[in-house]
Amino acid sequence: MKKVDRSMVTTANELHGHRVAVSLGVVRGITVRSRSVIGNIGAALQTLVGGNISLFAELCERARSDAFDLMLEHAAELGANAVIGMRYDANEIAQGVTEVLAYGTAVMVEPSR
Known about the structure:
This protein is an alpha+beta fold.
């Protein structure tokens, strides 16, 4: 599957060294994740000692990465070569089930002169 290059994504409203030639609209990638029973038990044990709960951190990182990749695929489908104004959003939609959304504006950019 074709995707926009990760280096062509920014949270800013412009991409340094480039100018927006065409704005193609909002793109998004969404993933929905749940915690497994085993993961919950492992994480519960980690909370007893305090600090970073690595099992949940890894789950969150995977969810964000998957949503980001889906957003890049959506942008490429529209013919974009960059995404500006990129953001993440997350919501718990049921007990232990979280939606992660990556979104931004798909654009065609060209080098600044």
